[in-house]
Amino acid sequence: MTSGTLVMLHGMTGTTEKMQPLARRLAPYGWNILCPQAEIEHPTRGGFAWWLRAEDPTLPLDSESQMQVEESMQRVIEEIPDGPVIIGGFSQGGAIASALLETDLQERIVGLVLIGTKTVRPDRLIESLPFLKPREVVWMHGVRDHLVSLEVAIEHAEIFESVGWPVTRFEHEKGHMVNLNQLNELKNSIQRMADSV
After folding, report:
1. 20 to 30 A Cα–Cα from 40, which one of 15, 70, 159, 164?
2. 3-state SS, one letter per residue, for 82-102
3. Per-chain mean pLDDT for the chain
């Protein structure tokens, strides 16, 4: 059995320490975990962000925010060890994870874990996916999510589905959070990704 690294990226105002307990619970048997920490300190809420933006989350990112996304992606890539990678994240972290498919790292990504998130670069993702080998995506979202609407999150999942990538969806009745009631199913999906290596 091949081992690799489960990389889980925290959301806005998160930290490595906040993400590690979830990553440990989700990690496939024999795999390592890595929870990089963003470097941009959130100015009002504490913790760290992969990018900062205007208050309206429905608007596209401006050029400064897009630059922060690029810089955050490069920092994450530099931290990831050799070998197979399952990459995922919560909220902003999931958006960074998804965008990493647009980089050379995609050759080592064997699965994606997208929790309470959306794509911040839909056009680039749509352009990249048809040229990539499909791999499994697990998606979790709450119908009461007030930060990332269910509709926007579903659009993210459908980008993958439209090009034949298998997406396992876990929809729940809660808000912007990981639904712990579905944790075992989430873990089983991630283990299946690892077993495919």
Report:
1. 159
2. CCCEEEEEECHHHHHHHHHHH
3. 94
Residue 54 covered by a domain:
no
What is the residue whose two structure tokens read 């034949």? 164
User: H helices of 27-149, where?
Assistant: 63-79, 92-99, 122-128
Residue 90 main-chain phi, psi, to 5 deg? -110, 130
Structural domain total, the chain: 1
Is residue 78, in this structure, part of any structural domain at all? yes
Residues 135, 165: contact at Cβ < 8 Å?
Answer: yes
The 10 Å CB-count burial string (b at 16+, else e) for 177-191 is: bbbeeeeeebeebbb
Residue 49 lies in a domain: no
Query: Residues near 19 by Cβ (< 8 Å), separated by ≥ 6?
Result: 8, 9, 10, 35, 89, 90, 93
Which range of residues forms the domain containing residue 21? 5-39+67-195
- 31 near 111, Cβ under 8 Å? no
Residue 177 domain flag: yes
The answer to whether 176 and 149 have CB atoms below 8 angstroms apart is: no
What the block records as the tokens of 194 is: 């690892």
Sign of CA dihedral 13, 96, 87, 150: positive
Gap between the Cα atoms of 19 and 59, Å rounded: 27
Confidence at residue 156, expressed as pLDDT on a 0 to 100 scale: 97
Nearest Cα neighbor of 5 from 72, 76, 69 is: 76
| Segment 158-176, tens digit of pLDDT | 999 999 999 999 999 999 9
